Here is the input.
Amino acid sequence: TRAVTVSPSELDAVYELATAVSACEGARLRVVGQHSDQEGDRENIETGRLRALVLMGSLVSAGFESERILIGAPSYAPQVPGQPGLPKSHVDFQVIMD
Here is the structure.
C-alpha cells in the first residue's frame, strides 16, 4: 500500500494553503483523502479518510485551529482535469466559505 503521510516539501505547501485560509474570515479548509481504486492496491475509503486525518493532525500540531478544518473522503478517486499523471492515492483540498 501507499503511504498516508506527505513529504516535508509537500507539507510546506499545505501549511501555506492553511495559512491563507486562516487569514480569511469565515473560511474553512476541507481536507479530502482520496484512495486508489486500482485492483491489488489494497486501498479503500478508510485509507482515504486516514490520509485526511493524518494531515489534519499535522495541521493541528502546527497550530491551526481544528474547528476550521473539515474532513472528507469520497468513495472513489476521480481523475483531476489537467493532471492525468496524478496518482489516485492523494489528498485534495477545498476552501469552504460560511
About this structure: The first helix runs from residue 8 to 22.
